[in-house]
Amino acid sequence: MLSSPGRHGVSSGEIDQLRERALHELQEVTTHEALAQWHARYLGRRGEITQRLRGLGSLPADVRPQVGRALNALKETLETAYAERERIVRELELAARIEAEAVDVTLPGRRPAIGTLHPVTQMIREVTDIFAHLGFQVVEGPEVEYGYYAFDALNIPPEHPARDVWDTIFIESDQKEIVLRPHTSPMQIRVMERRKPPVRVVVPGRCYRYEAVDATHEWHFHQIEGLAVDEHITMADLKGTLAEFARQLFGRERRVRFRCDFFPFVEPGVDFAIDCMFCRGEGCRVCGGSGWIEILGAGMVHPQVLRNVGYDPERYTGWAFGMGVERLVMLKYGVPDIRYFYQGDLRFLSQFERIPI
Ligand code: PHE
Fold first, then answer.
1. Is 338 helix (H, G, I), strand (E, B) or coil?
2. DSSP one-letter code for 152
3. 226 close to 314: Cβ distance less than 8 angstroms
4. Active site residue 246
5. In angstroms, rounded to a whole number, what is the distance separating the alpha carbons of residues 298 and 188?
6. Which of 56, 203, 237, 311 is the right S-S partner for 306, CB 3.0 to 4.6 Å?
7. Which pLDDT value is given to residue 124?
8. Which atom of ligand 1 is nearest to the CA of 184?
9. CA gap 66, 83 in Å, rounded
10. Catalytic status, residue 166
11. Residue nearest to atom 10 of ligand 1 (CA)
12. Residues sharing a CB contact under 8 Å with residue 293, sequence separation 6 or more, in sequence order
């Protein structure tokens, strides 16, 4: 202990005070930042202890060793206390962080948003499923198509007025005509070219038409084509198949109607209608007051089409049909405007229930 008087500026009492003050302040320190400040204040290059050690030289020689020892002892005490406090501060800070970042495992989780299949995709699956169970195979074909398959082979020669019915988007018209297919019927030809009867296929796919867009017309839409060719295939098979299809899709109680229609690739051609499921035939806005809703075009495959693919029309007969998928969805779910399908608006799309993928 130091006993000499304070006239040299470093009395034992003063060193005691300094120790008390430093240790007391250290107790208050709870962050690394405050800890660094404390260290600078007492033990740093300009710190109180360091300054005093430097000032030793100006003390009288007789007290110098004593004061020096006392200061060094104090320095050691503070260094030890500092190291101990550093350990505590690290624990305090860790505890504070764990507290701040704590996860409440009892909170309900955030559900990931799971989309639904597009209503057109759902309808394609529903329709092709029905036909698959009736023995039809599902095939697909190109959306960019030769004029030959889109028209010529389907008995629609160049310059034929019926060619205007399909407002076609042309890709190439100079040499070999190339178009965006305006219907799925070209696949009738592609399928028959590749295989021998019996043929039973349905063909879903995108189609394109150069068309002014309104509530019932889109320049891009989907069709499902159907084709059955074999020996002894008759119009009665067509009627039975389509009636069964319509009843599976729109309800067992549906009545069906066939009326004459014209398509160059069938003879005879028909349009196929069901009684309106909204008014049950009474007449309403959906069926335009007629009580009937047309859902597809069909007919017996034209003999010339069979000849075009090398089938003998004396031996084989067949029928084909084509329907618009968006229109089926609109009828089944009462969608008033075809434009909703391709606006990507979740308020519309999420109304269609999720079916297993
Ligand atoms: N391809 C015709 C259309 O787009 C529909 C159809 C297909 C008609 C097959 C008869 C037979 O309108």
1. helix
2. G
3. no
4. no
5. 13
6. 311
7. 97
8. 1
9. 26
10. yes
11. 298
12. 273, 274, 275, 276, 277, 286, 287, 331
